[in-house]
Amino acid sequence: MRFRILLPAMAALAAIPCGVIVSSGAAHDIGGAGRWTKAAPAPAPRSEVAVAEMAGRAYVIGDYNGATGLLIHDPATGAWRTGAAFPTPIHHAMAAGFGNTLYVFGGYGPGWQASDRVWAYDPKADAWQPRAPMPTVRAAGGAAVIRERIHVVGGSVSGGANTSGHAVYDPARDRWSTAAPLPTRRDHLAVQAVDGQLLAIGGRVDGDPGRNLAVTERYDPVTDAWRTGAPMPTARSGSASAVLGGRVFVMGGESGTRTFGAVEAYDPARDAWTTHAPLPTPRHGFGAIVWDGRIHTLVGSPTPGGDRSGLVEVFDPDRAVR
Predict the structure, then answer these.
(1) What SMART domains would the database entry show (predicted)?
(2) What does the pLDDT look like over 89-140, one tens digit per residue?
(3) Which one of 3.30.420.40, 3.40.50.300, 1.10.540.10, 2.120.10.80 gives the CATH number of domain 35-316?
(4) What does 222-267 look like in DSSP terms, one character per residue?
């Protein structure tokens, strides 16, 4: 989603490659492994959402157009239901499931004001409760869990300027600490954890989709240090991402003029990328979860900007394209 803030009001199954894998640099294979299918759409369209998985359910939070209803998806049955509404309109938030609680961090509220608020959702009580705020305001970053901590990385502040902030949340103590900053400041990036390390991939500079990045950076919490990995083959931002078979799959995204269908997977063990069957519907501002060896992509905008949809498309890396 484009947001140069001059706006007063208004974001354990291995994939099988089909080509030759080359390590390091901009290496990737030329294949298109896997198969996509469509599933039952969400009951309401959304974009610029936060999506997280918890106990086999997908939770879709926020919306660029102000909807606050919590959408809950069961990938086993394809069914949808709603939960307690999020306490305030939000978009470009970050979310992670940990234990039996869903955590939502920051995001943009009315007037594109970035927030430091943290909310916790209890699915049994169907209720939201506030938690300790982040050290700084943050939107359009990423969040991932490593060793019982939630790392919130990158993003933007009010006005659209990027932050290199790396905040670490301890859910058991409801406390925050800071870690080594993200080397390349960016927003709308993909953030995932693999084998105890944090991966930060792609994104854009200061909210401008015309300044997309392909950079891959890897964080080791043991040394509290970042290093550079092989760049993503397609520079893009606003993508969905998920971890499957030890790889980070990055799907879709946008530039200033188009949405992407590209599906590319990063293997940290080889520092190499593979190319996979593209999304049936190129889009951005969406999210993904993994269930039963498949990646479920949820909602998002099929066009650049503030469109939205209820699309659900499912990727099976172990089936051939037909």
Answers:
(1) Kelch
(2) 999 999 999 999 999 999 999 999 999 999 999 999 999 999 999 999 999 9
(3) 2.120.10.80
(4) TTTEEEEEPPPSS--BS-EEEEETTEEEEE--B-SS-B---EEEEE
